[in-house]
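thought: user wants a sequence for this fold. calling inverse folding tool.
action: design(structure=
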């Protein structure tokens, strides 16, 4: 009885009971669990599909499954008041069959039944169910920061301790440092290779001819208007990775013609690539190495969407937060691998499939061949009439 009792206590502490059934990687869809079987398995017959493959005991797999469950869920008995649960709860069956079905990706019903039977039966709830999720707090901080710099304190916000009375924004600079840390964590800094082609365009009247490379550089400071990443008077080089995106981005003043210049990148460029976030998937809760990134991905995905969103009214005000972020990455941020960065890649607000790039290159740098980031000798021009996307003239 003593051994049996000790074994029961051990199972309760770890959260699951013994199960020696063998399971192969083909019976589970979750990538992390499949990789564990591939790395640690041995050749035998799978209990669930009956095929001879690399397998592990289900009990071995349960260590990872329970670790993932406890990453996101806890015992709900800590939240009982007046003999009732005060938060959303799940039975073990509900948790495995419904809440975690997309994570586990198991179609074999016998395997699902065995996992449900192996996990110690209890009532579950989300970890700390009354608390805001970390990414929710950070998004709230970002929105508070935006309101602050747009409507309250624009130029000395970095000294503005306790300007906003919220506990999560005691210093407005904190959210910029959070973005910095997450960019490093998710490895969003990349290199743009030499000879990568980028495009920049200008609208003009039908009688105007643009054929000089200097006409396609960043504007002189006296003509630099407020833009998504730069305030009025600050000159930057805005471009895109294809002509269609350029045309959609610049088609806003009723001009009859447009000319697009293509350039090749002159040297390897280091950029912050926010466009990678759009298709970045959340790591599985069963991926013990990567799951800590879940909150940062959720936050930065929402942040990147706001960076790229359309702004139809008061751009000189609405662009202020993204202009500050741009200056932070231009003058403060240091990549752990590459040091200073040369620009930012982001999703186009006008073309769902397009990507834009802003290079930290002003009018004077563009004119100076030594400082210029693009090879002006490679410039090629394409001319378009209205409607831009349907008519090309050589």
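)
observation: tool returned 394 residues.
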């Amino acid at each position: 009885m003593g051994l049996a009792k000790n074994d029961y206590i051990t199972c309760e502490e770890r959260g699951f009971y013994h199960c020696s059934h063998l399971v192969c990687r083909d019976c589970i869809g979750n990538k992390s669990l499949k990789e564990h079987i591939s790395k640690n398995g041995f050749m035998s017959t799978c209990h669930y599909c009956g095929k001879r493959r690399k397998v592990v005991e289900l009990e071995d797999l349960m260590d990872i499954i329970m670790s993932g469950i406890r990453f996101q869920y806890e015992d709900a008995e800590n939240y009982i008041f007046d003999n009732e649960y005060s938060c959303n709860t799940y039975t073990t069956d509900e948790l495995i069959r419904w809440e975690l079905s997309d994570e586990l990706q198991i179609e074999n019903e016998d395997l699902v039944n065995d996992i449900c039977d192996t996990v110690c039966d209890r009532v579950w709830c989300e970890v700390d169910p009354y608390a805001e999720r970390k990414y929710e707090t950070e998004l709230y901080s970002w929105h508070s920061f935006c309101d602050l710099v747009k409507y309250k304190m624009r130029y000395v916000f970095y000294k503005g301790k306790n300007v906003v009375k919220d506990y999560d924004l005691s210093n407005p600079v904190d959210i910029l440092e959070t973005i910095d840390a997450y960019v490093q964590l998710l490895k969003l800094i990349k290199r743009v290779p030499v000879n990568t082609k980028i495009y920049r365009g200008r609208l003009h009247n039908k009688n105007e001819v643009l054929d000089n490379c200097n006409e396609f550089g960043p504007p002189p400071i006296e003509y630099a208007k407020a833009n998504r990443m730069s305030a009025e008077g600050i000159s930057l080089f805005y471009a895109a990775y294809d002509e269609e995106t350029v045309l959609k981005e610049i088609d806003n003043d009723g001009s009859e013609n447009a000319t697009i210049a293509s350039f090749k990148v002159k040297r390897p460029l280091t950029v912050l690539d926010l466009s990678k976030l759009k298709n970045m998937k959340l790591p599985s809760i069963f991926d013990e190495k990567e799951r800590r990134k879940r909150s940062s991905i959720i936050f930065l995905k929402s942040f990147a969407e706001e960076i790229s969103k359309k702004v139809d009214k008061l751009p000189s005000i609405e662009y202020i937060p993204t202009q500050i972020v741009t200056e932070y990455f231009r003058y403060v941020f240091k990549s752990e691998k590459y040091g200073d960065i040369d620009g930012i890649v982001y999703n186009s607000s006008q073309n769902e499939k397009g990507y834009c790039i802003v290079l930290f290159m002003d009018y004077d740098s563009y004119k100076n061949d030594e400082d210029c980031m693009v090879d002006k000798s490679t410039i090629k021009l394409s001319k378009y009439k209205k409607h831009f996307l349907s008519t090309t003239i050589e």
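thought: summarizing for user.
answer: Here is the designed sequence. The mean pLDDT is 89.
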